[in-house]
Amino acid sequence: MRAHDETGSSAVEYGLLVAGIAALVVTVVFTLGGMVRDTLLDPGCDKLAGQIASANGGDADCEN
């Protein structure tokens, strides 16, 4: 009797691979998201708020 050939990948295996990659991406985003926001976006927002305040002669705030 010949054994069943299981050499090809099935859709279930590809689905598990995609789910694992998605879980890794979500974990990285939640872990590093705050750090990226604090280092990249907040200084830019403060700079932009200062430019808006000086142009309008008023006060501008960055809201988180």
TrEMBL record:
Pfam families membership: Flp_Fap
Domain of life from the UniProt record: Bacteria
InterPro entries: Flp_Fap
UniProt keyword annotations, A-Z: Membrane, Transmembrane, Transmembrane helix
TM region(s), chain numbering: 12-33
Name by which UniProt lists this protein: Flp family type IVb pilin
Annotated organism of origin: Nocardioides hankookensis
